[in-house]
Amino acid sequence: MKLKEIKHWLGRVNAYATEVYNAPYRSAIARAKRDQDDLFMLLVFSELMGVPNPAAFYTLELQPLMLEQFHQWHQRMGMEHSPLDHFRCC
Amino acid sequence: MNAIAMMLLGLGAMLLGYLFYSKFIAEKIYRLDPNFKTPAHEFEDGVDFVPTNKYVLWGHHFTSVAGAAPIIGPAIAVIWGWVPAFLWVVFGTIFFAGVHDAGAIWASNRNKAKSIGALTGDVVGKRARNLFMIVIFLVLLMVNAVFATAISGLLIKFPSSVVPVWGAIFVALIIGQVIFRKWMSLGMVSILGVIALYALIVAGPSMPLSLPEMTLGISDNAGWILILFGYAAIASMLPVWMLLQPRDYINGLQLFIGLILLYLAVLIAAPDISAPAINHNTPEGTPSMLPLLFVTIACGAISGFHGLVASGTTSKQLDKETDARFVGYFGAIGEGSLSLATIIAATAGFATLADWESVYTSFGQGGVAAFVTGGANILHDGVGLGEEISQTLLTVMAVLFAGTTMDTGLRLQRYIFQEWGSIYNIKWMQKGVAATLLAVASCLILAFGAGGADGSGGLLIWPLFGTTNQLLAGLTLMVITVMLVRLGRPMYFTLLPLIFLLIMTVIALLIQLKGFYLKADWFLFTLDLIVLIAAVWIALEATASLSKLRKAKQQPTD
């Protein structure tokens, strides 16, 4: 019983510490991640924008997986609908 | 008088301020509403807007606003005796800083968590907004120059701290990797990190390091300043999780441990205050206490920098509006207690009055070094730490603080340069590296331009930094006051501090202006003049917007 209490208490301390560690930098890190994701998306959709991509055969497979993200991206960029003629997401 | 009495009086008064005055301000003036939907909930996105537990948010807010400034300011200001500094810190915290900080959170919270800069544009006008940008830039510029000078002075005076100070950065780098790669839980990492840091501090005195007095025609002081800016430039460009995040975290832990140790040592050692209550025997060249006291101690009594943090990040994470009281007002009290500890260290840490006077030989002397020496004496007597180890401990605390502020400051300055680059369409200025270099160059010009080639003059601009910081606080108070008037609520609780601050800063600026003119120091003269113009401008804007509101109220709308 006692051991359980200590474990529970330690778990709470850990959770607090994690929150304290992450809260101040949450936005900076999320922003950096978003920038990297955008670059990745550019690679995946590069052929559609007329940029030759030697790995197009493989990135083509990724396109359906990126659909959701692509939609968020063009909305974030201020375009209501998909800017690509061949790739309509909405 | 005994230091315990000062400690209990100060902490007691601040606590009463929190229990009663902040309750009054929160309920009657700001009328914080537990049912108000805060921006953190309204725009929750997991990035900027995240409802956060109020204790976590308080920790984040407090550690962001607490830097080296609440240590440097009071440590310089006790030259006028301990009573003036003590009173200004205690009453400033209760009636100025707490109201200002909580008010900034409230104002931002009621306006979609916009920053005070943007709010100034909305509430007061476009002109005031431009003014705001200029004042912010000046504050950042000065803070970097002053802190670099202060750190280099400490590193030279206490060579035992060099290894722990730079070692702490390696500890932080390792912690960053451990957390990022999820090798260990945070609780474990915190314990190991603190142990590593304190092991370095204990080891410091056995391996003192110092730069050669002259290398390639550069003095050791100037050398450290250059190294520090080199470090800050690199640190401000690294991904935040690598260095800034773990270092801030370990810094925060160290802040709490250091504060607790200091207060504990005061309680055990019960030192007598050796400094005079009011110093009638001030060294030659010390400026008059009235107005200068109120700009020498900025952080710790009231600081405009807090408004930036409060409205920039804190307001976006506020879970309930009523949390603003705890986070803002109690955050200010945290900072006030740090300043109080500094005053105790710098006045009760010396055995005799002669010892104290030999440290405070002229205005601007003493400073952080007095805090370190005095505080180390108290730690040595109270908790029995070796004197040199105590000195190293306090130096590391002060340096890490100043260092954190420096690279955050450089980062923010870089953003301002990049923004100017995109406003005026200058391509190269929009690049991160170029903007950082510009920021570093502007700080170096100030650090060396103010006091000759050895860079020792950086601290000359300390009162000027305080003034600019107070102006920033004045701008925030102006925004809050205008908002209160519009809501038809009493405005005197924010207007009176605003008027007091403006009068004190303008007089202080005029006195300093005369001093720089007599010394024919045209560099600082110009800087002072710019700040003075900004101060008068703020006063005019405030009067204009308040009288406009008044007229609008008197004319019945039909």
UniProtKB/TrEMBL annotation, chain A:
Q: What superkingdom heads the lineage? A: Bacteria
GO molecular-function annotation terms? helicase activity
Query: Which Pfam families would you find in this protein's record?
Result: DUF7990
Q: Which UniProt keywords apply?
A: ATP-binding, Helicase, Hydrolase, Nucleotide-binding
The protein, known as: DNA helicase
Q: Which organism is it from?
A: Idiomarina tyrosinivorans
From TrEMBL, chain B:
Q: Name one Pfam family in it.
A: CstA
One GO cellular component this record assigns the protein to is: plasma membrane
Q: Which domain of life is it from?
A: Bacteria
InterPro entries under this entry?
A: CstA, CstA_N
Does this entry carry the keyword Coiled coil? no
Positions of transmembrane segments = 6-26, 62-80, 86-109, 130-156, 162-180, 187-204, 224-244, 251-270, 290-314, 326-351, 393-412, 433-453, 459-485, 492-511, 523-544
Q: Set out the biological process GO terms recorded for this chain's protein.
A: cellular response to starvation
Record's bilayer topology term: Multi-pass membrane protein
List where in the cell it is found.
Cell membrane
User: Where is the CstA N-terminal domain positioned along the sequence?
Assistant: 2-347, 365-508
UniProt keywords (A-Z) are:
Cell membrane, Membrane, Transmembrane, Transmembrane helix
- Family from the record: Belongs to the peptide transporter carbon starvation (CstA) (TC 2.A.114) family.
Database matches in PANTHER family: INNER MEMBRANE PEPTIDE TRANSPORTER, PEPTIDE TRANSPORTER CSTA
Identification of the protein by name: Carbon starvation protein A
Q: What is the lineage of its organism?
A: Bacteria, Pseudomonadati, Pseudomonadota, Gammaproteobacteria, Alteromonadales
